[in-house]
Amino acid sequence: MRYKIFGQRTGLKVSELALGTGMFGKTWGYGADREEVSHILRGYVEAGGNFIDTADNYQLGESERLIGEFVAPNRDDFVIASKFSRGSSREPALSVLGANRKAMVQAVEGSLKRLKTDRIDIYFVHMDDGVTPVDEIARGLDDLVRAGKIVYAGLSNFPAWRVATAATLADLRGWAPIAALQTQYSLIERTTERELLPMADGFGLGVMGWSPMGGGVLTGKYRKGDTGRATDLKGSVLHADQGRNVPVIDELIAIADELGANAGEVAIAWVSAKGVLPVIGPRTRAQFDDNLAATTITLGDEHIRRLDAVSAVPLGYPHELLASAEQRAIMTGNRWDRIDFPQRTVA
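and the corresponding structure tokens:
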């Protein structure tokens, strides 16, 4: 396992794959039992992994408890990220839901107890509730940093404009910076490239991409009639193996065959090649070992070009207008090819 500095607003050295733990526990009726969780965590550590991602609502808190038991003897060796806003009980009270300061303060205390730790390294607001003022969120996270409850703050599943506003307010007011973004990103979810990834690049945020294999769809296993999250945990997978996904999976399989790999490994490697840190979410040790193999794959420029082409999504207005040849000519006096532009990690 190789390591990366996580964004430009932290000095954290994190492993090139983050271990997502939504499948740690069986409270949802689908997931891994304690023994299997231990096998996965041991394999991750043996491979050099140090970045564990969880949330208070994963398996209604069971994920955090299992992680806490495992990391307690060597807590300082790990970077632990957790999230709040969705509650940790089956039927949470209205007052504990959302991104407001009350929910934040209550949630962090519960996560600290379950994780058996005195601080959370990166604390994300899990979902934008669309109601809580951005300054309340940013100031609340700053309070948690100053209190020593968390080390870094981040936002997950937020619109780009809300993240940008929070990051700007924090910078202007001298609060703890918004340092991280967690967002869905894969070959079948590239709309993130319209606003979120350029925004994160502009602010220097560390970016974690969840569901890099599209909930297992990009492995091609559902074509074979296999079961998984899409069949056994309905609602957790937003993409079906049909329609526009078919050519993407076909190309993945073709490239995987050329590289002596499998489609899922190539899908993860593509996300990594785009400068986004993949968050894998194995349910079994075998799945983890398979995901880990993605770190041995180097995609060539031609491989990336082929995958980009088959999975491309319209960027929409105003991006397509601004990228048009006519508009470039107007803005640059027909000297576009003589201008050196900064390199971007996302096509």
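(Above: one complete record from the training split.) The mean pLDDT is 92.
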